[in-house]
Amino acid sequence: MTSSARPLLNRRLAEFGTTIFAEMSALALSTKSINLGQGFPDTDGPEEIREAAVRALRDGLGNQYPPGPGVPELRTAVAAHQQRRYGLRHDPDTEVLVTAGATEAIAATLLALVEPGDEVIALEPYYDSYAACIAMAGGRRVPVTLRPQHGENAGFRLDLDELRDAVTDRTRLLLINTPHNPTGTVLTPDELRAIADLAVERDLLVVTDEVYEHLVFDDAEHLPLATFPGMRERTVTIGSAGKTFSFTGWKVGWVTAAPELVAAVRSAKQFLTYVSSGPFQYAVAEALALPDTYFEALRADLRAKRDLLASGLAEAGFEVFRPAGTYFITTDIRPLGESDGFAFCRALPERAGVVAIPNAVFYDHRETGAPFVRFAFCKRTEVLEEAVRRLKASAG
Q1: What CATH number labels 11-45+293-395?
Q2: N or C: which end of the chain has fewer CB within 10 A?
Q3: How does pLDDT run across 177-199, given as a tens digit for each residue?
Q4: 48-288, which class in CATH?
């Protein structure tokens, strides 16, 4: 053990200890609770895609180091997906980079583009790796808070004036997540257009985390920010196979952007994992070419599960913000006479046999997020039904 008085952990990371996901998952195991905290499905994705991975393993595809940018088959499939879905043309050789999931894509992008002292604006609440990656790059995060709207159109919305006011001469980039985790908000075309206009006006880079692009419901539509005027050359778009195909453990993500942006991100990425997920890359290439019926069935299944859990939570006394996208539901616990999400979530496993996540961990302004709690609905229907039964019983 060092005798130095200096802490062992890099002070940029001092505020980041064990994640709440690890804590709550351990609590789920120790109490034998239903884990609706961490966002992973409890069933695997399409059998033909799993078999494609097995075939790649047996055929010796990707068992050794794959190419640094990713296997050509997957880069070509990503480019074809972007063009087919959104009309975005990308050169697979210079404008697509495969990463170890979206988390590495975020890390590599921020390490590549942010220097010490740069300000990075992120929509609060935000996926917890954003804050850590901004810190590792030496940047300063500037949260712009999505505000809850109650009543008939309950949800979280972006205040565009607050976003504009947050931009300074030190702002380097905007970090945008839509569909948004944890609130389930899907930014509207008008909101995206305003963000694009701001980025062009202030000459900002934009990083868009679009891993839930296929998980949108009702009348919501996902539109990549890169499709808006002036954005193609300044936007790094991040995608992932994990959420869309229910193989989160494979850790296959990607970046699409202009050649100079991809080259910058690759410069950082090569010193993180260098390469990863060799055989799985071939399988994901096949997954991206699945017919539209697959994506439509996925949405329909998750919409039904969203409605099941949302109705059950409302009946148990929560205020429910029904999400337009992702597979998370944010709730307000104040109607239950509670106001501290941390205390509520730590007590819930013993009280109800269900695990959730306090949204305050996704906020810089912890007090703003204190009464909100997130539940995941990407579970089997019978699991959600049992969770609802337990929550209702504990509320009664």
Answers
A1: 3.90.1150.10
A2: N
A3: 999 999 999 999 999 999 999 99
A4: alpha beta
